[in-house]
Amino acid sequence: MQGSGNDTSTCSRPLAPGPLFSVVTPTRNRAHAIHRMYESLLAQTLRDFEWIVVDNASTDGTAELLSRWCEDAPFPIRYFRREANAGALASLNLALAHAAGTLFLYTRDADTIVPTALERFKLHWDAIPPDDRGHYVGISVNCVDQNGRLVGTPFPQPCLDSDAIEIRHRYRVKGEKFGFQRTDIMRAYMIPAVPGYVGYMPEGIMWRRIAAKYRTRFVNETLRAWRLDQTTSQSTSGRNWANAFGSVIDTADALRLEIGWFARSPIRIQYLAIKYARCCFHQGRPLSRQWRDRPGPGARALWLSGLNPGVLEVVRN
């Protein structure tokens, strides 16, 4: 039932044509915790979904666990196993390539979701008029931590149509959230994997680019418990130099799309400029190229202001 690379197994029942949700869970050596997500899915009141598990070269018995669940689960499980660690981005892209659902729900392996999560997501999605739905990418809601405390800040209204950039700068919303996106849009904005690079490639690159074109409906409802007892990344290293390539792309993209919010968020934008310079130096990118890559007087002024602090950050790390 398992294989390497892109092998797949559909278990328990054949896939219904076009399930509404593809619930996607990347994992790596989390056999002791992934049962939380499995049990959450067993309890769902809406059954129109498949569960895609992408195993990033686990060595702790995850494959055996999934094999048993594939036999027992009352919903389709599709299990992909990589024999070598390819990083979190590769896991996301593999799931996107094979997702059969109209809506793509990305979950962490040790988290839990409430039994009505999928039902509530469908209700909120259906509340958007069909003629307007083409302008929306998905629904986002709140999370609590494992002790029931709200993570970050709530949305300023019970229901708010905005995007991932505006929600940060105009409405000052912070913290981990939870939501689904349209699978077709996710595929259109996939971040291509870079051969040989398994460092951190922030998903924010994709969210920002989507936000520049599509709306999200933000709902002040809590549907997920965000567990703190799990790793934050499947990438191979947390060292700054090892993640510099992805961080350069991320900060350059953020500066390009968020610079218009400088008046509202000067500290945030300045931080991005410093991080961009620091990561460029970690990557060995010369000053001449950094200058060329930041076209426009505003972007170059920010870059210049971040050079000295960026060098200091490199020295300290």
Task: Explain what this protein looks like in three dimensions.
The protein is α/β, with parallel strands linked by helices. 37% of the residues lie in helices and 19% in strands. It is built from eleven helices and nine strands. It has helices at residues 35-42, 62-72, 87-98, 117-126, 166-169, 183-188, 204-211, 244-258, 266-283, 287-292, 297-316, and strands at residues 21-27, 49-56, 77-82, 103-106, 112-113, 136-145, 159-162, 177-182, 215-226. Strands 1, 2, 3, 4, 5, 6, 7, 8 and 9 form a nine-stranded mixed β-sheet that branches. Helix 7 (204-211) runs parallel beside helix 8, helix 8 runs antiparallel to helix 9 and helix 9 (266-283) crosses helix 11. The radius of gyration is 20 Å and the shape is globular. It starts with 20 loop residues before the first strand and ends with a helix. Residues 1-6 have low confidence and may be disordered.
How large is the share of residues in beta strands? 15-25%
Helix-strand topology string? EHEHEHEEHEEHEHHEHHHH
Mean pLDDT: 87
Poorly predicted regions: 1-6
Radius of gyration: 20 Å
Number of helical segments with 4 or more residues: 11
Query: Structural class of the secondary elements?
Result: alpha/beta
Major beta sheet, specifics? 9 strands, mixed
Distance between the first and last residues' Cα: 44 Å
DSSP summary, beta strand count: 9
Helix-residue proportion: 25-40%
The global form is: globular
